[in-house]
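Records of this kind hold a single protein each, on a pair of labelled lines. With that in mind, the following record should read easily:
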Amino acid sequence: MISGAHIVLFTDAVEQTRDFLRDALRLPSVDAGGGWLIFALPPAELAVHPASRVSQELYLMCDDLAATAARLQGVGATFGPVQEERWGRITVMTMPGGVQLPLYQPSHPSPNRG
């Protein structure tokens, strides 16, 4: 029934953000017309958490937080402090252009990792 998910990042630094997604994160893309790039993402998972208000969040996942952050710092990303949670290690990545996304190394089971 559901064939995928489409995530939109809003920024006034479109070219910097697209360059980072293509060159630093190495996400494949297609040109949807006029240079409008749409990037492929690795497998995703969806969780539902209890909360007093309805909201959505996007987290990027990696297998080795320290190594991933070190590589991405070398191409212009900055990172906040790493927090240890019961479900994994997490930081906030700021991409060139200012878009911020949480990045975490999960310690919980994943339907995509067996």
The first strand starts at residue 29 and ends at 31. The helical segments are 14-24, 65-73.
